[in-house]
Design goal:
Length: 211
């Protein structure tokens, strides 16, 4: 006799209500030794500004992106904005008003953050918003990026960490520009996300060294 079993319904992600419709997405997963509480602490305290310095592939991507933006701006006769001084960039410090903002969090299960901007055509412009305006923001000429890092127990001593980034362009012209841009940058975005998850795994390992 065959006994049928039913799987429990999949838990909804914060992105399912923050950005349910999107034009592009990329998801990276990593199984990390440790419980969700310890890994959530690492996720929110890893300094993302240090990742280009720690990983050569990310450093090269950022350098190539900067060179491409300088070339496009030179061809268009535009002046590049002054670089923003580097500082620590940790999710636990992310504000609810600014450019990149904390959208929602549910420790130790999920952290969601996002930004509104225009980041194709050689010019990156981030819009200053309040987090509670993110869902309703619909101004043409911009796109919304919503990111979620979610954690699920994986066996007795490990955690599955999933990092998803969704993008929704807010009008047909922006969508056409973004999708051309996305075909080029998607592999690099995935590399940066994998580097972040690797940094989290290292942070957890350093905090809990093997006996």
């Amino acid at each position: 006799m065959t006994i049928a079993t039913m799987s429990p319904p999949a838990a909804a992600l914060m992105l399912d209500w923050l950005l349910p419709e999107f034009d592009a997405t990329v998801v990276e997963h990593r199984v990390i030794e440790g419980d969700p509480e310890a890994i959530y602490r690492a996720i929110t305290t890893v300094d993302m500004a240090e990742i280009p310095h720690r990983y050569a592939a990310v450093r090269l991507l950022f350098a190539a992106r900067g060179a491409a933006e300088r070339l496009v701006n030179a061809l268009l006769g535009r002046t590049m904005p002054a670089p923003v001084p580097e500082g620590a960039l940790r999710l636990c410090d992310m504000p609810e008003h600014g450019d990149w903002v904390r959208l929602a969090d549910d420790p130790p299960d999920e952290f969601a953050f996002g930004v509104v901007g225009r980041f194709w055509g050689g010019e990156t412009v981030w819009e200053t918003i309040d987090a509670d305006h993110f869902v309703a923001f619909d101004r043409p000429g911009f796109a919304k990026i919503g990111c979620s890092i979610s954690l699920r127990p994986y066996g007795a001593a490990r955690t599955l960490v999933s990092y998803e980034a969704r993008t929704q362009a807010l009008d047909p012209e922006s969508r056409a520009h973004f999708l051309r841009y996305w075909r080029v940058v998607r592999p690099g975005v995935a590399i940066v996300m994998r580097a972040f998850l690797h940094a989290v795994a290292e942070e957890v390992s350093d905090a809990n060294p093997a006996p």
